[in-house]
Amino acid sequence: MSRNVIVVGCGRVGSQLANMLSENGNNVCVVDRDANAFSNLGRAFNGSVVQGVGFDEDVLTRAGVATADCVAAVTQSDNANLMTVEVASHIFNVPHVIARLYNPGHERAYEQLGLDYVCGTSLVAEEVFSKISSGHGFHLDTFGDYEVLRFSLNLERNDMKSIRVSQLEKSHDVRIICFERADGRTSSIPTGDSVLEHGDSVLACVRSTMVPSFARWIQD
Predict the structure, then answer these.
(1) Taking CA atoms, which of 26, 52, 107, 152 is between 20 and 30 Å from 73?
(2) How far, rounded to the nearest angstrom, does the alpha carbon of residue 147 sit from its chain's CA centroid?
(3) Which regions of the chain are under pLDDT 70?
């Protein structure tokens, strides 16, 4: 499925990601404050470019944020990436935002903010591409026919206060790998009798075809 994607940052990672997305039929706009950086895209790139700062509302508007399915901020600045995805998510309501994270010490903060991110220095473009291609904001990885997701459990939408792991697994082709209480007081590898509560952070392996129906258990 073709997506409208804005890639903020046109260094090695951003240019590689933009070309991967473009080659796979997506509509891509690349944003960078340095016009010379667009030369990294090469002649084969068939998307568009906008010069400017990625967290500037006017710049994002010119890049097509109103119809964007995803904004990926992959500059070399954690602060710039965070501000970009916050603006895209909270001001323009972009459904899927991804930030590159250099400092692993900030991971907990990103998780508490509910942000999708990629942390590392190698294979970053491939990982971001995988997240965008999955179409799901809580996607971590793909293994064959299965997706690994990390999310906050939504029981209020299902008029429940708690649910046993076995009950959640039984109704879907899913395996709950581990969970952490919403307040962070404890974490566990569950058994079928383990009880999950609303807001718990859950790591799960879900068959790809079941992700749309399973999404009702995921907090937005």
Answers:
(1) 152
(2) 13
(3) 1, 120-123, 127, 130-142, 220
Do the Cβ atoms of 69 and 7 come closer than 8 Å?
Answer: no
Instruction: Return the amino acid letter for 110.
Output: Y
Eight-class DSSP state of 11: S
- Inter-residue contact 130 to 147 (CB < 8 Å): no
**Residue 17 to residue 129: CA distance in whole angstroms:** 6
Q: Specify whether the CB–CB gap between 41 and 97 falls below 8 A.
A: no
Cβ(152)–Cβ(182) below 8 Å: yes
Quick one: which of 108, 193, 186, 104 has its CA closest to 150?
108
Q: b/e for 80-109, b at 16 or more Cβ within 10 A?
A: bbbbbbbbbbeebebebbbbbbeeeebeee
Global confidence as pTM: 0.62
β-pairing, 201-207 with 146-152?
A: antiparallel
Which pLDDT tens digit goes with each residue over 66-81? 999 999 999 999 899 9
Dmax (CA) of the chain: 58
Pairing of strands 4-8, 27-32: parallel
Detail the DSSP E strand segments found in the chain. 4-8, 27-32, 48-51, 70-73, 96-101, 116-119, 139-143, 146-152, 162-164, 174-180, 187-188, 195-197, 201-207
Which residue reads 């990885």 in tokens?
141
